[in-house]
Design a protein that fits this description.
The chain has four domains: about 45 residues, no CATH class; about 200 residues, Carboxypeptidase-like, regulatory domain (Immunoglobulin-like), CATH 2.60.40.1120; about 130 residues, Immunoglobulin-like (Sandwich), CATH 2.60.40; about 60 residues. The protein is globular, with a radius of gyration of 25 Å. Helix 4 crosses helix 5 and helix 4 crosses helix 6. It has about 450 residues and is an alpha+beta fold. Strand 7 and strand 8 form a beta hairpin. The strands form seven sheets. Strands 15, 17, 18, 19, 21 and 22 form a six-stranded antiparallel beta sheet that branches. The longest helix has 21 residues. It has eleven helices and 25 strands. Bound molecules: heme C.
Length: about 450
Amino acid sequence: MGKHPYRITLALCTALAAFSLAACGGSSSGVAAVSQTAGQSQAPAASDLSGIAAVGRPLSGAIYLSDASFPTQSLSAVINPDGSYSFGASDLATLKAPFLMKAVDNSGSAWYSLAPGAGTANVNPLTTLALAMATGSADLQGLSDSFGAHNAATLNVLSSTFPQALLRVGTALQPLLAVYGGSGRDPLAGFYALNRQGLDGFLDQVGITISQGQVTMTDKTSLATVFTAPLANLDAGRVTLSALSAPATFYLPGNAELTLALQGELPAGTLVRRASFTLQLPLGFTVDSGPSAVNTALPIGSAALSNVYPVPALSATDNQLSVSLSSLDGFGTGNFLTIRCLVSSAALLATGAQDFSSSVANFYSDIYKNVRLKGISIVPVSLVFPSHEGKALCASFCASCHNLSSSDTTTASLFGKGTKLTALAGTRHHGVVLSAIQAGYLTEYLDALSSGQVVY
Ligand code: HEC
């Protein structure tokens, strides 16, 4: 967002501030800037500030925001059980961006971040590290001091140096983040899902200590050091990739995939930000309870950037699955979730989407469950058995040229080649064009075969 032009105007605006406040807002936000003071990084949109406060697991505690006005104004909010927090547009209206953020968990540990304005600002160990670099703090006490004593000038300088610090963190940690599929992700404003993958997987596995001008990262399982660097020169950091525990592989659990839609009419301009419901599974259906249980409910469509938290729980007494999800951006009606179930081969062919039903369902237009939404319901749309569908696809489109023998090591055998199918999706391959969904089903089928399952 035009960081460089902004920094040049910042110097100019600071010099001119006494004479002409209104002239320095940037071209696109000139009108809004009249009511703001010079040097603000961006005119805040009339929207909320929200994000996820997490150290791998979500932080439970409170989040504090401190602004750039004089004297400093602050806000606080309780962090939701899923790590999400939000400050409303009306609360932010009288405050001056940028905002320093501090999340304090119930044990008293604090983590920091900086929000350039309204929008998304996550708080996690990586934003804390970047802020420590940007403020020149030697440790978390230094950050705590900055939080307690700052002014518009220091915040504005931070607001321009913080994004660069974040980039440097991403670059220095790239080899480690890559192992978890988290490289290239924006820890501040990017989507952060509590699914033990990507950034979340990395932060679940790696503990970060900032002390005496030094950052040390430790693998939580082996307790071995995986990264160490002086805060002032992260690029000179030492990465010990071999000491990092491999991520648990979260295969997609289950052999049946149910798609759920949200049906009804939402009040104009309203979106769902929080939903919790129970889903009655038909007799014989269950869900994975192992490490891949985090993939039992996968948000899709306009809800794709939602967090499902906690992991859906299946009641042993009535076979009802409890699902909760929250979305900072909100989502509307239409397909929004897939549920992965496990089912025996006998039940598999005799069941359809109509055999599922949702009983208790609550929807809210805010993440704190203050504003309840009525008139919408959850409808089961389709039930597919990916491996079963994959088997049919393989028989009709691939079997003329390929076999499934585990002893054939040539390209003629598709055994164990599930991972090669994503590359095939959407391309023409010897006269066959597969959609992404079909490629997904074929992958399921090939993976099921190579893991020794019998697919009906
Ligand atoms: C008309 C014949 C033909 C059909 C039909 C066909 N393939 Fe192939 N496929 C080949 C040939 C030949 C190769 C060898 C490499 C190449 O030419 O692309 C191959 C290679 C592959 C490879 C790479 C194998 C490896 O070991 O690297 C995959 C994966 C694959 N095919 C998947 C499929 C799937 C899935 C289908 C069905 C949707 C399919 N193919 C249908 C002819 C075919």
